[in-house]
Amino acid sequence: MLAAILFSCSPTSADDWVILFNGKTLDGWKPFRDTTQFALSDGVVVATSSADTQFLHTVEEYGDFELQLEVKLHDTDLNSGVQIRTQLTRTSDDGKVRPRLHGPQVDIGKSPGRSGYIFNQGNGAWITPEEDLVRNETMTNGEWNKLRVLAIGPRIQTWINDRQVGDVTNDEAYKNYPSGVIALQVHGVKRSPEKARRVSFRSIRIRKIESAR
Fold it and tell me: DSSP readout, 3-37?
């Protein structure tokens, strides 16, 4: 039964792997705004769709790192994503600070699709160049898929099921987002029918990387 949550560089050295989600607790994670769309079930994080896009993010921020996790789309008409180096607030021109999640996102969706490419969440554009947004079949629909992300300086590389998908270097994106939280996304579904859509995450771990710059 679901239990709702209430609450161009070269690496020179790497820390040990840190388990971000061990299947037992969600210590170190916080929901962004909504507290009901993410739940623990049988050792995995299950995210259920609502009318609005929702996120579950780490408390800690990360700059250069390698991230590994597994993701499963239970419904292929739902898309998801994993935020990296993401900010939780935005300052308006008049100096007011308001909650607003924005930053690079590794796209996750049905196959064939654009899984593994980098979207600029909250800014309405792709970081991956348009000419590289070739639909791929790296995701296996309805099953668990391995995602690996390597972010070092302005370069972000992604792999799905051990096959490299993305490799993009964007100095402007790195200038705006040199570090930030990791966040799991469940996309909003407008005019949602009686059947909710779900995406699950498990085996989440990360290692920080020190880079020579």
Answer: EE-----EEEEE---EEEE-SS--TTEEEES-SSS
Residue 177 has pLDDT above 80, yes or no: yes
Contact between residue 15 and residue 201 where contact means Cβ atoms under 8 Å apart: no
**Residue 6: is its pLDDT beyond 70?**
no
Nearest to 122 by CA among 87, 79, 85: 87
Output the pLDDT for position 12.
Answer: 43
DSSP 178: S
Distance from C-alpha of 156 to C-alpha of 149, rounded to nearest angstrom: 7
Q: Is 131 exposed, middle or buried (0-12, 13-18, 19+ CB in 10 A)?
A: exposed
Between these two residues, 49 and 73, which has the higher pLDDT value?
A: 73
pLDDT higher than threshold 90 for residue 205: yes
The C-alpha angle 156, 161, 165, rounded to 5 degrees, equals: 35
